[in-house]
Amino acid sequence: MRNLLCLNGKWDFMPLYDQPQCRRLPEKIVYEARKIQVPSSWRRTYPLPEGKRFGKFQEYDYAPFELYGYPEEWDAAEAGVLHRSFRVPESMAGQRIVLRLDGIMQKAVIYLDRQEIGVWEDGYLPLRLDITSLVVQGREHHLHVVCGGFDRVVLPNGMQKITGLLGSWYGRICRGLWQDVYLEGYPALSLEDVTIRTSVWEGRIEVNAVAFAAGDAARSPLRVKLSIREKGVLRQSEECRKALGFSDRASAGSEGAGAEQADTGLRPDRPECYGVDLESAPVLSAECMAHSVDGAAVETLRLCENEVAGAVYCASFNMDWSGARLWSPDEPFLYSAVLELLHGEEIIDRRVEDFGFREIWCEGPQFILNGIPVNLRGDSWHFQGGAQQTEAYIRNWYRICRSVGVNSIRLHAEPYPADYVRIADEEGMLIVDETAIYGSSKSMLADHPAFVENCRQHVRRLVQRDKNHPSVILWSLQNEMRWVDGRDGFKLHMPGFMAAIRELDPTRPIIAEGDNRLLPKVHTEVESRHYNIDGTIGQWDRTVPLTFGEHGGWWYICPQNSSMYVGLQAYRGTDESTAGLAQKERLFVEYARRQGVSGISTFNFAHYFMRAMPEQNIVLPSSEPGMSGVKPKFIPAYSLSINNGLLPEDYPLYTPNPAFGIMAEAFKPATIIAAEYNRCFYDDAPVSRSFDVYNDTFSTQDVRVEFVVLQGKSIVHEQSFGFRQSPAEHKVVGVEWVPFRPAAGEQAVLTAVLFHGERRVHELRLEYRIMSASLLNQPVNVQRQTVYWGADEDYEHIRRLVPGCEKVDRSGLAGLAADHLLVIGSKAEDLDGGLEALLKAFVARGGKLLLLEQTQLSLGRLPLSRRPFLRAHAGNYQHPVLEGLGDEDLMFWHEELREEGPLPIVHAAFEKPAAGDFTLLLECSAGDFGDGGDLWSPLLEYRSGEGLFLANQLELMANIGRVPQACLLLRNLLAYAGRAGDNAGAEARPVAALLRPGGKAAAFLDKLRLRYTALDTTAPAVANAPGEAAPGDGQDFGLIVAEACMLEAPGAAEALRRHAEAGGQVLLLPAEDSQQAELARLLGRPVRVVPHETYHLAADYARAAVRGFSPVDLFGFDKVFLSPREVMNRALALNSLELPDDCALCTSVEGTPWKDYFVHGYTAEYSRLALVELNRRNTRPAGTFLAEVKTGAGSVFCSQLLTDPGSDKALRLYTRLLANLGASFDDGLLDSVKGDGEWAMEVAMALPCPPHVDYRAMKAYYTDPEFSLNNLGEGLYGWMQKKERRSGDGTLRIADAGLDPWFLSCFVQVPGQLRRGRLRVNTAVPYEIYLNGVLVAEPEQELTLRGGLNRLIAILHGTGDDLTFGLTFLNADGTYMKDLEYRLTLDEVEPK
């Protein structure tokens, strides 16, 4: 009755260059010699600024969208003409002929025999055109499709915006017929639409049919017969797998891999794949009359977009059905509804519609599927075109997700090809079906009438296409339209779009992904958040479900955002960084599950948790014309993360990276999660632990949990729990045990096994560190007389550890002898700076100082940044202060977990100093989305002459009684600071330098404040080794620092070599290849200087010279993706040395994609995984950039590290290296006094108001008393830029500010109650200050801060040059407000 002719295959093609919006068929058409394959996109790349191209990396020959080998020049054609001829087959004689195009990108005009028959600008959904009157049986017809770009409008700022629905980035690159094209033959009187609605709640099924009679085909009376037959569940048996063509290929990789087999892509349309008898009697049947209706009443249900005259009929069935087998993810049971249109006994048309009997609704905060609460654990990804359009790719994606507990997929940013929902029906995957109203690209003018109308039609078409699919449980209206141009006008139409959805389908909830802030509460059916930028879980009122449609930071991957969860190992490579992001996301998922969040979709299993494949381009066999589906010629290297069924047999289904296993554990439906996060205990008290037990299956379970605690080989505790647990129910169980007295390094191991009935479904294994409570009282070996100043509570702890410690008052500090150890208690107050002056004087005269955690007090110009830090970490733990500690000990000091992560263990940390003999014993990180990094130190050591101070900012004293790690660290600090002798790693000796006077090297050493004697460049031989008398002042030089160019002087290399041979040390600054001969004379061996730029180094911490080097300083990428910071990426070195491996102190880290991400700016999501593999494949050998060559009794250190005075990292690295070699510095820290440079406002976010923007509206936006800024720094007027306080005058600098007004925002947190004071404003430009929405008339005279959060807005008016601006908060008496905290963004954002 119905016929189908696929028009896929080779088509003619004429590219139209420089005609992006061409809409007319050219008079003269000249086709390319090369045919185009339909379906496909003729474009694979498009140009980007700075000579780059989206979709291609020339240096790697990487082109993931190159599936067909089209000529490169086609990429420049934004429009083109596609053509083929066809004949209506005999089988369609007398039928209604419909042309169906499933996907045309972007806007197209369709011509038949050069007559325009349709205009289409919905790039993702099918177009059907009735061409019956235009075709003749047996005649050759010519079909032309003119494809071009969407219509554009120009904004006042000159930017162009589109009025079509682009969707995600595939919609921008794609042009042409990218989905199938068919000729469809229908009976002249046929069923055009079927709508099936099922209700589990009522036990009913409703089926509505629309029929159409073209021309004189109308008949009466008409009946519709409905027969419902079981189709069943797609079998997973071996027999069916073979019928479907599955291979036995397993995935490779780590835990979580290998659970599923790769799919070859064959359609499961064989009866044996469902295990039902398709000839059996129907389970439900009925007949009813079809009544003639006004066509306007069912206009939205019509088959074709073009108007055709004829009669319209409707038939409706509404029947009880109590015994239906329900469709669910556990059992995706399908039925086939067979509808026959009858005139008398004649069957005029037959239509088969597959469906599942299921119902989805919301009850308060829960989704309910078939009467059972369901928590959504989801995945989502961007559609990438042809390589993802195979049956196998889709099925494999869903099966991977099901294997790790993911039960829902958000088809993100645009409607995916219809196969995605059909296969989801079969596989039992719940689908969030999303439109192409995608605001993240900000490509549209959202309130333009044409865009609004396109949205209205698009929403209708999506629902019409997918309404009968049981897998579709939510309609997603849009994605992140919150900051697009025309937002405020667009959001007024959102309720109307929702009403259009409701008209076609009132059965499913509607969500606006990431955009609930644009909807009035009355229209919010599901609350949607993305990442941590849309408010907190605590703000959820639980009247509707809450979902996180996207979450996780993998697009923003960088070590700076990962280290706070895995420590400085994040700087090793992408695997370590991705694991850090996974640990962060794991904690969020655990918290969200504990809070009952209704849905979590991490971003994502399909891509970011995988390794790219295949390793090389795969050439595919040619295909027969006229076959449905994509038929690529190639699968490009690294274009996939999931096997799409077109790869050779030996390819796995997928290969995971470290994130996969971590997140698979977090997403398990039936699992046990520890409710407390601290894992270190004293041995003198019981250990109490509670555990969250989840049953996110669809059945009530008989649950048994068995706990065993082992310490050593002994069982400390055993306990079992049994209970019945309903679907989506969260239970908490607890255990308590008393630990044994631990042996050295002993751990307690807890194992919890979860059973459902007799089936073991999960095992949890946790390790706990047990430490002796004697640490709190056992005396520390302190070899100096110790005194303490500070609060009594801290003193009691110190006195137990140092029994002879005496407490002194402040007056006793002035004359304290330098042979003492002075301990300053935590959180000391020093409003007038007098205490600080006493402490600096004590260290300056050679005293040893231990400064416990402070909120205001630090020495000299060493500023404290008051903000929370979750953890601390070190590049290595060899320093005596860190003995017995590791990364795992410096996080999770508290039981609780918050939405933003663990409770902090540091509340203020030092901004990393660039100069001075500092050892950063620990570092800490803050920030998100590219902002922040390891910019702070919570524990540092400083030396000046004989003086030393250790400054600790970890919350030791507040936690010592219950956190053994805090006690251990305090003990180590006391022991180290209290040693009788000097604790330095190298003996301090005089330093000489052989430099060009006034040269860059001399300037660099001066910036280091290095103490050295400049040698006579004309007579370098006067430099004497230790113990040798030097002419002149008789000074012995332990170390000579030499510029490589100075080796060219006669005898210089030999003199330096003799110095080393006699026991001295030589540090040679960077050499170039022209100095190889001189370098060889110095070292007494051949050496090559090789061009080798590096941004990333690793140190051999077993070598004394590089101890204290930070992995952060060895990482030159500071301007990471989307970072709002005004920093730059700096190469650490330009040339390497070819020397024996045993000489190497610092070598380059190779094979990572960081340079491509952060220097080359290759940040597109499609390329991230590929760049990881491409860099691995092209790894060059590591180079040596710092080496020690033993020479006689001494050493020559060859450093290729750049001496860049503008780089704090270079300054720290050379300071540490020189200090390790015995150098000393005149850094002046102990003589310095803090000023505005240390106390002024630390940071602000800034954004200009360009001439085309309404200044009054922008001012009203920023000065709103409830103004908020999300964690991306993203707002209605754009992304704000971060401005950081500069040392010196404490001002923020805006370079090239122009004449525009600038808005600066900062959130000022005030501890305690209301605070009165004033501002010191440091700027030369006109300004206004708003505080909490109110203009401060005279801020330098009077200002009132309220306790808690204050919204500060400064409006500056540029004068054409750079703009500098500083704000310093002063008390009424003129002293600094030292306890303020400055925040750039808010977690608790409001709908602004």
UniProtKB/TrEMBL annotation:
By its UniProt entry, which PROSITE patterns does this protein fall under? GLYCOSYL_HYDROL_F2_2 (PS00608)
**GO molecular function per UniProt:** transferase activity
Keywords tagged on the record: Glycosidase, Hydrolase, Transferase
Any keyword Hydrolase?
yes
UniProt keyword Transferase, yes or no: yes
Pfam families from the UniProt entry: Glyco_hydro_2, Glyco_hydro_2_C, Glyco_hydro_2_N
Outline the extent of the Glycoside hydrolase family 2 immunoglobulin-like beta-sandwich domain.
323-358
Q: Domain named Glycoside hydrolase family 2 catalytic: which ranges?
A: 366-540
Q: Where is the Glycosyl hydrolases family 2 sugar binding domain?
A: 7-145
Q: Which PANTHER family match?
A: BETA-GALACTOSIDASE, BETA-MANNOSIDASE
Q: Which family does it belong to?
A: Belongs to the glycosyl hydrolase 2 family.
* Protein name (database record): Glycosyl transferase family 2
Q: Which organism is it from?
A: Paenibacillus borealis
